[in-house]
Amino acid sequence: MIVYDNRFDANEWFVIVLLFVGYAVVYFLPRRFPAKNAIVYGIYGVFSGFLFDHTLSVSPFNLYDVNDNSNFQVMDFLSYLSYGPFSYVFVYLFDRYQIKPSWIPAYILVWSLFALGMEWVSLQLGVFHYRRGYKLAYSFLIYLIVQSVLVRLYFSLQKFSKNEAITK
Amino acid sequence: MTLFIFLLIIWLVIILIAVFPHHLALVDYVFLYLANTILVVTVFTTLMLDMKYLAESTDVEKSLTFMLYRLTGIPLLLILFCNLWLSPVKQAYKWFGAVAIFATLNLVQLLLKGLGMVRYVRWDITHSLVMYALFMAFSSLIAWLFVRAERREVRHL
Fold it and tell me: Which residues, other chains included, contact B50 with Cβ-Cβ below 8 Å and sequence gap of 6+?
């Protein structure tokens, strides 16, 4: 096990603040989606955090570690939970401003750059520790893919909800 | 070879999901896949990385195949179970299906061990039986709660 830090410091506070602010934003935003869809949009962010961190940061890749050591800690779990509000707000603004299909790549790019910025801050505060030559730029590809899939998921669920409403 | 065997298993599960009558909505399936995957990867990572109960192979193909099975095979088998468990079929069919899926999960676990993809350090078959039973119980509980979320919402409106 690799230990980076043993204290409750910047990385832990960053995760906790992000978690509280993120879920507070979600709570105070006006309701826009059916409950089930809203849950799926939120949990998608948590899922993508788990998916990539539990594939890229474990054997055989071991490309980075999260928080104080290379084991899986409660703070790691909380940091994945903090991704939830981001995916919800992503879809919320997408739906709120009715992004036109021709502007979808630009919308995804802006959010991916924002995510990259957040990751850079996390890196400085010790939330992530890159190994084996992993670079911030590699995460850019992941953000582009994750957000493209989320847009696809949004359209599928919207279409499904409309069909269901017509059937009822 | 391990990759081929497990891709075959995963694809057979996908065929079963496609063939069986769908009793859940698309949004339910998406939610169940996301939630089950989070559950499965969290438990396996904790068992392997923190508790050291299980150890995965150092062979790249075996390690990747096991990862693929954790991310797709187990969550999809749990979805198959939830679809059956929440369907309006007879209770006997539900239990028969549940036992069949439970047996499949445990047989594949034995296959993982047999093919050297996972090594039991402080683990035995009893632990596997309990773990998969809990996976199925938890999965059916969250599926039940999620399906009811819409009904509660309709009542509130």
Answer: A71, A72
> Backbone phi, then psi, for B120, in 5-degree steps?
-85, 115
CB within 8 Å: A55 and B71: yes
The CA distance from A21 to the nearest CA of chain B, in Å, is: 23
Separation between Cα atoms, residue A138 and residue A56, nearest integer Å = 11
The tokens describing B71, both together, are 């991310």
The C-alpha atoms of residue B20 and residue A119 are separated, in whole angstroms, by 42
> A interface toward B at CB cutoff 8 Å?
34-37, 39-40, 43-44, 46-47, 50-51, 54-55, 58-60, 70-72, 77, 153, 156-157, 160-161, 164
Task: Read off the pLDDT of residues A9-47 as tens digits, 9 standing for 90 and up.
Answer: 888 898 999 999 999 999 999 998 888 999 999 999 999
Spell out the residues 6+ positions from residue A95 whose beta carbon is closer than 8 angstroms to its own.
Answer: A32, A33, A154
Residue keyed to tokens 């879809």: A91
SS3 A134: coil
Regarding pTM above 0.95, the answer is: no
Q: Residues 6 or more apart from B12 whose CB is under 8 A from it? A: none
Q: Which of B110, B122, B117 is nearest to B53 (CA)?
A: B122
